[in-house]
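Subject: design request, 440 residues
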């Protein structure tokens, strides 16, 4: 497959855009370097690049595009919103409609505030928790990614880990000192940290189902323990559901049927993003009335946004959620995903490739290793070179994955049986190609 125009554009981009990309996770640095693919059009489950190659897409723009690219219902909603003015700087009725939809799907949120990205949502939940508890420290889990604010770029998974900088430069030590990191799925380690620093801890922040060092479920009882221990010390529980909300069902991880005991695992604050914007920039956070009343103009914790709640993002988000209310959409994504993961596991076995697949409904991660992946250490201890070889082999056969061994594959409502068959054919050939190669 030739990608001459992508290579030319990359040369040009390098002259003007740092690293040639506007988000480091788009770079191919971790998969052998060179030009990333420049896409020019996307429709449904497919991309076309500037050299007119077609790809089946499993990146879904790192999650938001759960209804496939350019879904007509969402496109129409954006067009209508744009025709009525893109930004008002005043409240609109649309924001109320969307807030009600989110509250209905995520009952732990009494009050919501819209922002522009997942980073902003998470960043603000931490400020609100600090304002409420009048404490400074937060506890997070190794390998979880919570956006790029100073507060959470410590032991961060996803892009920072992919590029080997889980502890970013440029974070004042005074801020890094306020963050305590413990292993995911390890309640005794959390207890130990709380025993030591509990009186200073404002919040424990977690991806309740992890999406940033692969897809990783909490072990049974982990979230219950987390909530119980955190509250024993008077700290708040913050769920970062930027990836997980509306991913597995119409609701969030905290209400997902795969996790029991929903009352016991309800958080105080939740951060949202990605899917709720239908492909346009968005974030949101919400929580109990008492905690959210810390936020200005009611309370002393300040948070604002010129673009926040803009009619285009909100309209796209409402339209996306409407599509996801269609009966059977999650079941169909899951059905196709099972077919895909069964096929991948079978071919990996056939060609002697060590592969651990973590699947949660319509998303999954592929780890080149022969141990389970339940925490960040286990995710790091996987074969990055083999992933890179697989990534390139799949790309050359028209399958677009995230260029990182930590990222998930996302199915969308637009993927078809034909896409799965095409992908499995590419995977068989790719496993065959990398089997026996030097990277093993
Ligand atoms: N939290 C989680 C769990 C995420 O996965 C991400 C993005 N991958 C973020 C926060 C940051 O969101 P954004 O990129 O919209 O700032």
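Subject: RE: design request

Done. Sequence follows.
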């Amino acid at each position: 497959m030739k990608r001459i125009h992508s290579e030319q554009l990359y040369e040009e981009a390098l002259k003007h855009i740092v690293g040639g990309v506007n988000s480091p996770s788009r770079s191919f640095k971790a998969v052998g370097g060179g030009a990333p693919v420049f896409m020019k059009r996307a429709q449904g489950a497919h991309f076309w690049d500037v050299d007119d190659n077609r790809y089946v897409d499993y990146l879904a723009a790192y999650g938001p595009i759960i209804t496939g690219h350019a879904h007509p219902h969402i496109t129409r909603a954006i067009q209508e919103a744009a025709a009525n003015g893109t930004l008002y700087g005043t409240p609109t009725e649309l924001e109320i409609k969307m807030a009600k939809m989110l509250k209905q799907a995520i009952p732990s949120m009494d009050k919501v505030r819209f922002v522009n990205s997942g980073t902003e949502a998470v960043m603000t939940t931490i400020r609100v928790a600090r304002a409420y508890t009048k404490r400074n420290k937060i506890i997070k889990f190794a390998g979880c990614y919570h956006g790029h604010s100073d507060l959470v770029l410590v032991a961060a998974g996803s892009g920072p880990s992919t590029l080997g900088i889980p502890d970013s430069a440029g974070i004042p030590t005074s801020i890094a000192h306020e963050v305590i990191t413990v292993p995911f799925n390890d309640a005794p380690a959390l207890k130990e940290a709380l025993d030591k620093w509990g009186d200073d801890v404002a919040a424990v922040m977690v991806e309740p189902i992890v999406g940033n060092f692969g897809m990783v479920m909490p072990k049974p009882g982990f979230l219950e323990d987390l909530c119980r221990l955190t509250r024993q010390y008077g700290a708040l529980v913050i769920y970062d559901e930027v990836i997980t909300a509306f991913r597995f069902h119409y609701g969030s991880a905290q209400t997902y049927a795969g996790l029991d005991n929903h009352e016991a695992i309800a958080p105080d604050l939740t951060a949202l993003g990605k899917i709720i914007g239908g492909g346009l920039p968005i974030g949101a956070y919400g929580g109990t009335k008492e905690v959210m009343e810390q936020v200005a103009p009611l309370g002393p914790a300040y948070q604002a946004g010129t673009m926040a709640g803009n009619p285009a993002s909100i309209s796209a988000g409402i339209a996306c959620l409407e599509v996801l209310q269609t009966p059977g959409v999650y079941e169909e994504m899951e059905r196709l995903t099972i077919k895909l993961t069964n096929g991948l596991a079978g071919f990996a076995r056939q060609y002697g490739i060590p592969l651990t697949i973590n699947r949660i409904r319509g998303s999954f991660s592929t780890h080149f290793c022969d141990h389970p992946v339940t925490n960040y250490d286990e995710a790091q201890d996987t074969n990055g070179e083999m992933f890179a070889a697989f990534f390139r082999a799949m790309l050359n056969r028209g399958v677009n994955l995230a260029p990182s061994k930590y990222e998930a594959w996302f199915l969308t409502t637009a993927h078809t049986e034909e896409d799965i068959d095409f992908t499995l054919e590419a995977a068989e050939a790719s496993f065959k190609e990398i089997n026996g190669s030097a990277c093993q």
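The pocket of 4'-deoxy-4'-aminopyridoxal-5'-phosphate is lined by residues 62, 117-119, 122, 145-147, 158, 207, 211-212, 240, 242-243, 273, 283 (CB under 6 Å).
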